[in-house]
């Protein structure tokens, strides 16, 4: 009786197929990318630079110690209360601001809804938030603090933009982006809101004191 041989499977092209599938999944798969905080580092000032004098009341001093404890103006503050404290400081409007673009002198904040406390910030464009963190502090704490501060600015900008232009600042920026940043009227509106509530956040290393 003749011996029957088992038919062999031609696997010569399997490697090519596997390679093509690998390429396909690499091209079509969405990769999650961690994004950090977008910050522009300050340039080193010239030797003859004379820094402007800043009133202490216009500085919102935040410090983080090595145990990740949060202090604002020397007092302990819970992280959950940081945003409301920042809102109160930025929107206080207790005095005259710096001259706006195209103006010769500063004026009172006619859109601020704060307490106008003379012992707090004079104007949103004078309100400086200073963050000092210990080198041993956790980076996650720093990021959370930044998020709270940016959320405060975002809330103020959205509120003012809604009042002036009938839309949130987020919607205004999105509309401006859709024009390829070419619409001059929308550009002026965006700049108007940004100038009204400029984000002035500085970082101070604990070793810089």
Can you give a write-up of this model?
The protein has 209 residues and is α/β, with parallel strands linked by helices. The chain contains five helices and five strands. The protein has a five-stranded mixed β-sheet with strand order 3-2-1-4-5, covered by helices on one side. Strand 1 and strand 2 form a beta hairpin. The mean pLDDT is 86.
Largest sheet: 5 strands, mixed
Work out the strand percent: 5-15%
The secondary-structure class comes to alpha/beta
Strand order of the largest sheet: 3-2-1-4-5
Q: Roughly how many Å is the radius of gyration?
A: 27 Å
Average pLDDT:
86
Distance between the termini: 98 Å
Unreliable stretches: none
- Helical percentage: 25-40%
Q: What coarse outline follows from CA principal-axis ratios?
A: extended
Sequence of secondary-structure elements: HEEEHEHHHE
Total E-strand runs: 5
- Please report the number of helical segments: 5
Topology, element by element:
Elements: H1 14-28, E1 59-64, E2 70-72, E3 75-76, H2 82-90, E4 128-133, H3 139-165, H4 169-178, H5 184-196, E5 201-205
Parallel strand pairs: 1-4, 4-5
Antiparallel strand pairs: 1-2, 2-3
Helix pairs in contact: 2-3, 3-5, 4-5
């Amino acid at each position: 009786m003749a011996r029957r041989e088992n038919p062999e499977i031609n696997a010569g092209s399997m490697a090519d197929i596997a390679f093509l599938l690998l390429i396909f999944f690499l091209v079509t798969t969405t990769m999650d990318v961690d994004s950090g905080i977008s910050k522009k580092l300050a340039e080193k000032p010239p030797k003859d630079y004379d820094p402007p004098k800043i009133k202490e009341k216009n500085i919102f001093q935040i410090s983080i110690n090595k145990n990740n404890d949060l202090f604002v103006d020397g007092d302990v503050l819970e992280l959950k209360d940081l945003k409301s404290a920042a809102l109160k400081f930025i929107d206080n409007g207790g005095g005259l601001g710096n001259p706006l673009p195209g103006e010769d002198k500063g004026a009172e904040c006619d859109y601020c809804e704060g307490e106008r406390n003379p012992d707090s910030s004079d104007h949103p464009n004078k309100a400086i938030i200073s963050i000092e963190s210990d080198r041993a502090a956790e980076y996650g704490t720093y990021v959370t603090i930044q998020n709270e501060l940016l959320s405060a600015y975002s809330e103020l900008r959205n509120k003012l933009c809604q009042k002036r232009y009938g839309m949130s600042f987020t919607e205004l920026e999105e509309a401006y982006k859709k024009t390829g940043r070419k619409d001059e009227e929308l550009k002026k509106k965006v700049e108007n809101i940004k100038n009204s509530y400029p984000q002035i956040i500085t970082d101070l290393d604990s070793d810089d004191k």
